[in-house]
Design brief:
single chain; 251 residues; alpha+beta; 2 domains; three-stranded antiparallel β-sheet; elongated
Length: 251
Amino acid sequence: MRKGWLLAVGLALMLAMVSLAGCGQSGAASLGDITGLNLSSQQQGIWVTGEGKVTVVPDIATLGVGIEAEEATVAEAQAQASDAMDRVMTALIENGVAKKDIQTRYFSIQPVTKWDNVKGEQVVTGYSVTNMVTAKIRDIDKVGTIIDAVAEAGGDLTRINSIDFSVDDPSPYYKEVRAEAMAEAKAKASQLAELADVTLGKPTYISESTYSPPVVSRAVYAMEEAKAAETPISPGEVEISINVQVAYAIK
């Protein structure tokens, strides 16, 4: 009886070991197949990049302008800044800037402090109010005139932080630069295929990115400059570009 029981246990253990060995082999084969598929899918074809670009004269100027006032109290500083900003806004609108093209970008009320040697700490001496807007100027020829007008309107409180030149609608130029980018990508892929002694197939993947950087000029404009001749402004040129990444199949 005891021998029969031991024989049954031994057979059960042998069957379990065989089953586990089979599962391990099956699992390893499956993992290998998946790994092989992932690697091959990442390595297929010829991957290249291409770029197309064109330089154009900008038709939009975005002016960063505002007011900074400092007084003993918040109420006094805010009142002074508000009055000056009203005059600046009026000057912008009277010189052809549409209300929809004026946007508040920054407003702050901050304490002004200095070090007190007697107390050994920073003490508040007043308050500063800053109100900055961006104004989109659609008539490039009037940029200098508008700068002078807002500087005079705001007086010594005027701050002009930046002038950005850009193209309002770059989409008409994209067709040209896109064709240039794709032609460059295909030329690269054709050369690589020839060097590798393979036949180039059709594109299997295309990705595009566009870039149209603004021309930026930064300065703090002083009232004394406004009293001279009209401020000269040169918009220069901006570059519009498209980059493509293309994967070509190999026949």
